[in-house]
Amino acid sequence: MRILVISNMYPSEAHPVFGAFVQRQVEALRASGVDVDVVANYRKAAGVIINLPKYVRLTWRALRAARRGAYDVIHAHFIYPTSIIGRWSSRLAHTPLVLTAHGNDVDNAATSRLAAPVGKALASATAVVAVSNYLAGRLAEQFPISLEEIDVIDCGVDTDAFRPIQKADARLVADVPADATVVLFAGHLAESKGIGTLLAAHRRLVAEGRSVLLLVAGDGPMAPDVAAASRDPGVKGLVRAVGEVRHEEMAHWYASADVVCVPSHREGFGLVALEAMACGVPVVASDVGGLPEIIVDGVNGRLVPPADPDRLAAALGRILGEGDRDDVASEARRTALEHSISNQTGKLIRLYRSLAAP
User: Are 21 and 54 contacting, i.e. CB atoms less than 8 angstroms apart?
Assistant: First the structure.
C-alpha cells in the first residue's frame, strides 16, 4: 500500500519538534509495512509574506507527487489550509482522500476567508479523521459534515519510548536537582496553552511557602514572560526555562517531574498529557477539549477549570501533597497503553484499506 502524506507541519533539523506527531505517525506506518511518501512544510516561520510562497511551493510539490506517484490513498494533515491542497491533489490523481483535523485548525478554518473551500474539501473527502470526540463535534458544528461521517483516531503515544523511568536517573539526565519538588510544563508558549495561568498559579504556591520548581520546556510568543518570571524575586528563582527539548529527550523530562501540568484554554486532544501519563507521571490539566477523554479526575490525574490560577494552584498543591501517587501513576500508564501508537496506527491502516481500490 502506497500513501502520500501532505502536511503543513513536519520536523527539520532547525525545528525538531515542529509537527513531530505527524512524523511519528508516518514512522509507525512505515514500521507496519506501509510505503509512505511525505510532502510537507518544514518552515516554522509565519506571516503573509512568508506563508504565500510557502504554501504555493507545498501545493506545487503535492500536485507533482500526486500526478507521478500512483498512490492508494492521499492523507492530508490539518484542515487549514492543507485540506484544500489535498483535495486538488486527490482530484488530479483520482485517489481517495483522508483529511485529519488536529486542533486549532478547525476554528482557524471556520473563521478564515478559506472557510468555503475548506468546506468543499471536507465534503469531497473520502474519509475525515479527528483526533478526539471533542474535535469531531467542533467539525460537525462548524462545517456541513455529520458526526457519523467522522472517524476518531488520535496520533497515539509511543509507549516504548515514553515509559516509567526511575526519577533519580531521569533527573541526572535532565540536570534537575534530586531533592526538588517539580512541576513541568511542555508545549508552545502561547496564552492559549495557559502558560500565563500556570505562572500565576505557581506564584500562589510559592507565596504559600511551597518550594516548587517550575520547569518550562518550549518556545513561543510568551517566552519573554517565562524569562521574566525566572528573574522575579517573588518566586525565589523557582522558575526555569529550558527551551525547546527534542522529542526523543522528553521522556526523561516527564519522568523527572512530580507532576506535569497542561493548563490549556483549549486543546484538541492533549498529546503532552498522554506522553506524561505513559511515563507514569500524574497530570493536572484543564477540563477542556479532548483532555477529559483521557483524564478521569481523581483516577488517573486531576482536571480543573481553565484560566483559573487559584483552582490550578489548589489542584497542584493537593496532588503534590499526596505522598503515595502510585495508584494515579499506574492508572495513567494504563490509559496511555490504550492510546498506544501501535493501536492507533492499526486503526488508520484499516481505514486506508477500506478506501483503497481492491
Answer: no
Nearest Cα to Cα of residue 302 among 310, 294, 97 = 294
Closest by Cα among 195, 143, 164 to 306: 195
Residue 297 DSSP one-character state: B
Element containing residue 183 per DSSP (H, E): strand 181-186
- Domains detected in the chain: 2-156+340-355 (3.40.50.2000), 167-338 (3.40.50.2000)
Max Cα–Cα distance, the chain, nearest Å = 67
pTM (2 d.p.):
0.93
What the block records as the C-alpha cell of 137 is: 463535534
Q: Please give the Cα distance from 276 to 312 (Å, whole number).
A: 18
pLDDT in tens, 200-224: 999 999 999 999 999 999 999 999 9
Q: Is 32 exposed, middle or buried (0-12, 13-18, 19+ CB in 10 A)?
A: middle
